[in-house]
Specification:
Elements: H1 3-12, E1 20-22, E2 26-29, E3 39-43, E4 49-53, E5 56-60, H2 63-73, E6 78-85, E7 88-98, E8 101-109, E9 119-124
Antiparallel strand pairs: 1-2, 2-3, 3-4, 4-5, 6-7, 6-9, 7-8
Amino acid sequence: MNKAISEIIERLKKYPNSEYELNENSIIVKENNENGFSVSLTSNENDNYTVAFDIWHEEFDNEIDALNCFAFGLSKDCRLKTTKKGGKPVKWTVQSNENGNWIDGSTTGLINLAFWKKVEVVYLQNDLIK
């Protein structure tokens, strides 16, 4: 098992209510409330990592940065702004809480040609790490 994944498992012992799935190269922590989102870390070749919050994802070549991003996704200081078109999610933007203001970070989106459909924005947030 990868060192980063072992580290996550060890840290999750502090949170007995957390549920996760594990395989040889990845761990997925399931959302811990009805408005939450899954957080995953995948160990790729060449000591690279992919951290994902639902569909949003980012690549890291540094284990510490990947672990920090993973923990951030489980905290109350992170939320996922999800844009839907016609009820279907098409865009995910990570937001961080800075002095009570939610600041947009990076975005992952899908190509959606249904530009005429109604736009709805929902906010998903985990609260595993207070």
